[in-house]
């Protein structure tokens, strides 16, 4: 069985407070994007995992796909499988690529072996694998609060727009990025701001990680500026970086300046 774990962008990201468990509460809109990895699952005589494509730092035995399998095996009589992950979505990119792989592995195992897990149960397993992970179970636009793993309905339909993602070959650790932010409660809720026309988002929809990361990595602000020069209606860094995206009315021709980075363009 084959599946295509896609990534997400954050539209607005407010870090509102540090929690007693060391994590942070946030407000953000998570929006699924078509840039995807490929995950294959084949029943086998013993468990194995291989990856191809982009190098994934760390021990393959700790890969989030392997951990997803192990979490389910602890509770179900799961047969051994061979898992092959072809990694395309950049890592340390603020796109939740690893979290998506994990959520899709849970969904694939649930389906292949008829485990009968509900969406809520899959989300509970996913929450244990990463704060971003539960979002990818339903994988639809959501307003996320708390650790980013509690969801509120949002009526936000960007279909018809185009998105350009620029990953400047710079891996930023999520934990490090959180360590640099100063949490604060916003006066106006992001949920309200997201109901305004996209043309006005530039004036108030903000990713709080930009404040601490743009001074350290000036290339991020330069890319955002370039995206506006190219005609973006809205541009922002995604998550804890380093991907910067622009939302456009029509497809864009990517200049040499941006073309040297890892670039993906598609429809929203
Ligand atoms: C910043 C966000 C925004 O969407 O996305 P990415 O940039 O990773 O895509 C997420 O909050 C990232 O979620 P995720 O990548 O799953 O993080 P986790 O593995 O759960 O946690 C990694 C580390 O980030 C910090 N962390 C994460 C989430 C959170 N709400 N508060 C935190 O303080 C903690 O230090 C934690 O040890
Ligand atoms: N399948 C996977 N894909 C990407 N990263 C993974 C995977 N499994 C474990 N990791 C680890 O997760 C971290 C990056 O996670 P990722 O979700 O890609 O980051 P970000 O959300 O910042 O883009 C890396 O430290 C990497 O070693």
From TrEMBL:
Top EC class, one word: transferase
SUPFAM superfamilies, A to Z: GHMP Kinase, C-terminal domain, Ribosomal protein S5 domain 2-like
EC numbers: 2.7.1.148
Catalytic activity: 4-CDP-2-C-methyl-D-erythritol + ATP = 4-CDP-2-C-methyl-D-erythritol 2-phosphate + ADP + H(+)
One Pfam family it belongs to: GHMP_kinases_C
Domain of life: Bacteria
Residues annotated as the enzyme's active site: 8, 132
Pathway assigned in UniProt: Isoprenoid biosynthesis; isopentenyl diphosphate biosynthesis via DXP pathway; isopentenyl diphosphate from 1-deoxy-D-xylulose 5-phosphate: step 3/6
Record-listed ATP binding positions: 90-100
Keyword Nucleotide-binding: yes
Domain GHMP kinase C-terminal: 198-249
GO molecular function: 4-(cytidine 5'-diphospho)-2-C-methyl-D-erythritol kinase activity; ATP binding
Family statement drawn from the similarity comment of this UniProt entry: Belongs to the GHMP kinase family. IspE subfamily.
Function: Catalyzes the phosphorylation of the position 2 hydroxy group of 4-diphosphocytidyl-2C-methyl-D-erythritol.
Annotated NCBIfam families: ispE
UniProt name for this protein: 4-diphosphocytidyl-2-C-methyl-D-erythritol kinase
Organism: Fibrisoma limi BUZ 3
Upper classification of the organism: Bacteria, Pseudomonadati, Bacteroidota, Cytophagia, Cytophagales
